[in-house]
Amino acid sequence: MNSVSLVRRAVATRLAARTRAIAPTSRLYSTPTDQEPDPQLNGYPQLPWKSRQHLKPLGWDDNLTRRNFGDPLHEQEEVLSMWGPDIPPIEPNVALRQFLLALSGFVAFGFTVKYVLLPEAPAVRREYPFDGLVKELGGLEENKARQEAVDTDE
């Protein structure tokens, strides 16, 4: 074989591989074997529950919605289309675990700052006699201050 025919063969092989890689895989019109046909569809193809956001972005007649001309729509197209709700990039239980881990880190940081890093007060807190000056402040329980500590020096 000459070099021109080898180059042609290599180019043809690459082109065939590229068209196979770009070809849409959404034309699965058969009913899955583990499900019985839905009688409400009345012969309409029972398409798999797969969001169009999972499909390859290139190789479609309409790349924006990832559809080819003449493709049947899924019965839940408004949910499975490109304009439906976004698919989470990670599983919900993994996201919850990561959120709880971050939340526990913030709480641990707060407790560390409050109980470990915060110094004690440099002065003794003020105490009031006569049951916290309840009578002097009007006698209401809402006005009650800290009670006086009794030191017994015997």
TrEMBL record:
Record Pfam families: NDUF_B8
Source species, domain of life: Eukaryota
GO cellular component term of the entry, any: mitochondrion
Protein name (database record): Uncharacterized protein
Organism of provenance: Agrocybe pediades
Origin organism lineage: Eukaryota, Fungi, Dikarya, Basidiomycota, Agaricomycotina
